[in-house]
């Protein structure tokens, strides 16, 4: 089923999503990789986070950008591997994050009753950039650098696949089980 959603995500809409749903996401999306996750959690613990995470979507991405006369142009915005952000997952969801976008999956248990994991195809960064309509802001660029800074994107119809739903069902787990018995190396 294809669903159109807008950020901030409504908790009821998130809970209705199931593994395999195609979602066209519009609204504000925040990029975050390792250093950004650490900074977000540090500042939220002090009540100093400069943006609201309730209903937010975090994109595990270090974009390729180019400075223009009007600000920034996103050249490529492919996902980075999400598994390395597993240590931050519980706390990010506790801050109200309802969706995480990346590649390769994450632990499904923390998503139960709280959020979803959206997959975007690795290697398709220029396709992702086509859904990014503009850069609204960039945070911590000076000290974290381009890939680790938090980029605030306005996206329109960003094509995503629900890979882990709010029941904990995971496309990745299902595939592993399905293909486990088909290997010639058994």
* CATH H level, superfamily name of one domain: Fe-S hydro-lyase, tartrate dehydratase beta-type, catalytic domain
In terms of DSSP E residues, the strand content is: 25-35%
Strand order of the largest sheet: 2-3-6-7-9
Radius of gyration: 16 Å
Q: Which shape, going by the Cα principal axes?
A: globular
With helices defined by DSSP (H or I, 4 residues minimum), what is the helix count?
6
Sheet/helix structural class: alpha/beta
Q: What is the makeup of the main sheet?
A: 5 strands, mixed, barrel
**Total number of beta strands:** 9
Oligomer: single chain
- Stated plainly, the CATH topology of one domain is called fumarase
Overall pLDDT confidence: 92
Low-confidence stretches: 178-186
Q: Please tell me the CATH architecture of one domain by its name.
A: Alpha-Beta Barrel
| H-E string | EHEHEEEHEEHEHEH
How much helicity do the residues have? 25-40%
What is the CATH C level class of one domain, in words?
Answer: Alpha Beta
The span between the termini is 35 Å
Explain what this protein looks like in three dimensions:
This protein is of the alpha/beta class and 186 residues long. The protein has a domain at 29-132: fumarase (Alpha-Beta Barrel), CATH 3.20.130.10. Helices cover 26% and strands 32% of the residues. It has helices at 11-16, 34-45, 86-94, 125-131, 141-144, 171-180, and strands at residues 2-6, 22-31, 57-59, 64-68, 71-76, 99-102, 116-119, 132-139, 150-164. Mean pLDDT is 92; it is low at 178-186.
How do the strands and helices of this protein lay out in sequence?
Blueprint: E1 2-6, H1 11-16, E2 22-31, H2 34-45, E3 57-59, E4 64-68, E5 71-76, H3 86-94, E6 99-102, E7 116-119, H4 125-131, E8 132-139, H5 141-144, E9 150-164, H6 171-180
């Amino acid at each position: 089923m294809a669903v159109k959603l807008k950020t901030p995500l409504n908790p009821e809409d998130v809970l209705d999503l199931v593994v395999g749903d195609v979602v066209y996401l519009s609204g504000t999306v925040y990029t975050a990789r390792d250093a950004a996750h650490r900074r977000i959690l540090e500042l939220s613990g002090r009540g100093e986070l400069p943006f609201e995470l309730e209903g937010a979507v975090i994109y595990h991405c270090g974009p390729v950008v180019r400075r223009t006369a009007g600000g920034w142009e996103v050249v490529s915005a492919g996902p980075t591997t999400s598994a390395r952000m597993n240590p931050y997952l519980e706390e990010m969801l506790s801050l109200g994050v309802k969706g995480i976008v990346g590649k390769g999956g994450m632990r499904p248990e923390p998503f139960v009753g709280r959020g979803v994991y959206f997959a975007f195809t690795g290697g398709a960064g220029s396709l992702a950039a086509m859904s990014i309509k503009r850069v609204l802001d960039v945070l911590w660029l000076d000290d974290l650098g381009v890939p680790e800074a938090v980029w605030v994107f306005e996206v329109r119809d960003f094509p995503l696949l629900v890979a882990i739903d709010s029941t904990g069902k995971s496309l990745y787990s299902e595939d592993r089980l399905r293909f486990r018995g088909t290997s010639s190396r058994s």
